[in-house]
Design brief:
By secondary structure, the protein is mostly helical. The chain folds into two domains: about 1-60, Multidrug-efflux Transporter Regulator, Chain: A, Domain 2 (Orthogonal Bundle), CATH 1.10.1660; about 70-130. The protein is about 65% helix and about 0% strand. The protein is built from six helices and no strands. The protein has helices at about 5-10, 15-25, 40-55, 60-70, 75-110, 120-130. The radius of gyration is 25 Å and the shape is elongated.
Length: about 140
């Protein structure tokens, strides 16, 4: 199947296919007599696997490792589980950071509901008290 057909079925663009080929995630396909790439039907499943793994937060390096583990039996399953647990821990840490940031912003926004005399905006106060940066002269 040609690049446009594969990219349409897998939901990626042609540049993504070529990038995955350069990275070694996708084998470079044979060419037709007219010089077009001729991808095998299995490439659709492979690309969907890659995109789904990325949707779950795996990096392309981790996706590559998962692809190598895919046919590896019980040892491959244990290694894939370890990767998934590490990804899950990373996501939980990010979520905790985002929740702290959300709570801090909620506190700042709540200040806006106070009467004008009681308002205090730490962000604006910090900006007001910071001296402007003086550009350095180039020699």
């Amino acid at each position: 199947m040609r690049t446009s057909e594969l990219s349409g079925q897998a939901g990626v663009n042609g540049e993504t296919l070529r990038y995955y080929e350069r990275r070694g995630l996708l084998d470079e396909p044979p060419r037709t007599s007219g010089g077009y790439r001729d991808y095998p039907d299995a490439a659709v499943g492979l690309l969907r696997f890659i995109k789904r793994a990325q949707d779950l937060g795996f990096t392309l390096d981790e996706v590559e490792e998962l692809l190598h583990l895919d046919g590896g039996g019980p040892d491959g399953c244990a290694a894939a589980r370890a990767l998934a647990e590490a990804r899950k821990a990373d996501l939980e840490a990010r979520i905790a950071d985002l929740q702290r940031m959300r709570d801090s912003l909620a506190d700042l926004v709540a200040t806006c509901d106070l009467p004008r005399a009681d308002r205090s905006c730490p962000l604006l106060a910090a900006i007001a008290t910071q001296p402007p940066r003086v550009p350095r002269r180039r020699r």
